[in-house]
Write a structure and sequence with these properties.
The protein is mainly beta. It has a single domain, classed as Beta-galactosidase, Chain A, domain 5 (Distorted Sandwich). The chain contains 2 helices and 21 strands. The strands form 3 sheets. A 10-stranded antiparallel sheet has the order 6-7-8-9-21-17-16-11-14-13, covered by helices on one side. It is globular. The relative contact order is 0.16.
């Protein structure tokens, strides 16, 4: 089966696009965004968080949570980052590839774009996150890619390969915290090889940590289904937020797994592209959130990337 793309209403928006193959389906909005608002197996759950009271709306003067998957500007700034994406996006479809382009943001001069390539068969997606500088002066940007995930799951990311004190005297990677993060928070588990964050809808505190790993990946187990995204970071380049290529955040409403591209000086007219690869898996079980338990469940899946 090849990729099937159909324009259809979804969530109260009349101009959405269903992108599907033999296993997966994604929903992309064009009435706002661009955002991917749904991702999952046929007939299965939506991995992405949806704020139901914000569906079908558009044109608001300020930024809206809404949910889904998007690209932002890092480092985070209350004005430059939180630019509204509430106007229609332009959609182009060619050879099964969907390109969604946002109007230029007046406050930043950036044009943002998602390019979605769903595999012709199987549970694999590749998404380019692009930003163009339309100003007549250079700007420094990092493409910050946020996946807002549905409540009730558990996120995990891997640290770089571990080693001994005898062989590794220098630090190998940062572990970055925010002022609102409490390391006593029971949602966190700190393991030798992995960092685990559980979503708890009863916990209203915000929490966030970041780190760097050349092999950047994050996974989210929701029931018995797993969402995994990955990209290769470059340790020779500078990254925002004290050197993070990956960050994870939780509130009562949702959990986010986020990747960040390097800080890039964009000359007038230039684009920057940050590509994530996604895989979805069924019948995944991690009965014990230990290094051994995660190894048993995820190492075979990570090897398939």
């Amino acid at each position: 089966m090849s990729v099937n793309i159909q324009k259809q209403p979804w969530g109260g928006w009349p101009n959405c696009y269903r992108i599907a193959n033999d296993q997966l389906e994604l929903i992309l909005t064009s009435d706002i965004g661009p955002r991917i608002m749904s991702c999952g197996f046929h007939g299965g759950q939506n991995f992405l968080k949806v704020f139901e009271d914000q569906l079908g709306k558009s044109g608001e003067p300020d930024w809206q949570f809404r949910g889904g998957h998007r690209v932002w500007l890092a480092p985070e700034d209350r004005i430059q980052t939180y630019q509204p994406d509430n106007l229609p996006a332009d959609i182009q479809i060619e050879n099964g590839v969907v390109t969604a382009t946002q109007p230029v943001e007046p406050a930043t001069g950036l044009r943002k774009q998602l390019v979605i390539r769903l595999a012709e068969s199987g549970a694999k997606v590749e998404v380019d996150h692009r930003m163009q500088n339309t100003l007549d002066t250079p700007v420094t940007v990092s493409a910050w890619v946020l996946t807002m995930l549905a409540p009730g799951g558990t996120a995990v990311t891997g640290f770089p390969p571990r080693g001994s004190h005898a062989n590794h005297l220098a630090p190998t990677n940062p572990l970055v915290m925010w002022a609102f993060t409490d390391l006593r928070d029971p949602r966190w588990s700190f393991l030798e090889k992995y960092l685990v964050l559980r979503h708890d809808p009863s916990n209203k505190d915000h929490t966030k940590l970041g780190h760097f790993n050349t092999d950047t990946w994050g996974a989210y187990l929701l029931g018995s289904e797993l969402f995994l995204k990955s990209y290769q970071a470059d340790p020779a380049l500078p990254y925002p937020d004290m050197g993070c290529s990956y960050e994870t955040f939780a509130s009562a409403d949702m959990l986010e797994i986020e990747t960040l591209g390097p800080l890039t000086v964009l000359q007038p007219g230039e684009w920057v592209t940050h590509t994530e690869k996604w895989w979805l898996h069924r019948e995944v079980s991690i009965p014990e959130w230990t290094d051994a338990g995660i190894d048993a469940a995820l190492l075979p899946l990570l090897a398939l990337r």
